[in-house]
């Protein structure tokens, strides 16, 4: 029996390519100035790709361009693209020598650690919002119906 597909009730809007890289790719940390508090862990959040493109530089720009050379033209915007399981929120400490050392995606100040992750079969157009926001029940149903777990 396979794992149960989640039905996220909250969402987080991210710039591209972050939205796609955290749902479909190697980005296993989301950096925020605040920690998720309600609901305990793990928490499943739908990931919404905002209309704006992230400004990338250095090693991260190189990684994004190597993984997905055409992301600037192909990345969905203004739509849900998948979901992630947040397994913990931890403070980043560059000198800690812990599990985040050497992770190019982690820079904090608070690192949301991703567990399981899912892509949507087709992006679902929707308006985004700031912070972690509640998804209308009909949209949550549509997201749950289209999620495909990424191995």
Key features of this structure:
single chain, 151 residues, alpha+beta, Archaeosine Trna-guanine Transglycosylase, Chain: A, domain 4, 4 helices, 7 strands, 20% helix, 38% strand
Coarse morphology: globular
Instruction: Give the uncertain stretches in residue-range form.
Output: none
Largest sheet: 7 strands, mixed
**Total count of domains:** 1
> What's the tally of helices?
4
First-last Cα distance: 16 Å
Could you tell me the radius of gyration in angstroms? 15 Å
CATH top level assignment: Mainly Beta
CATH architecture: Roll
How much helix is in the residues? Answer: 10-25%
Q: How large a portion of the residues is in β-strands, by DSSP E? A: 35-45%
- Give the ordered list of helices and strands: EHEEHHEEEHE
What is the residue-mean pLDDT, rounded to a whole number? Answer: 88
Classified in CATH, the superfamily is Hypothetical protein
Explain the layout of strands and helices.
Blueprint: E1 10-16, H1 18-23, E2 29-32, E3 43-53, H2 58-67, H3 71-74, E4 79-91, E5 110-125, E6 132-134, H4 137-146, E7 147-149
Parallel strand pairs: 1-3
Antiparallel strand pairs: 1-6, 2-5, 3-4, 4-5, 5-7
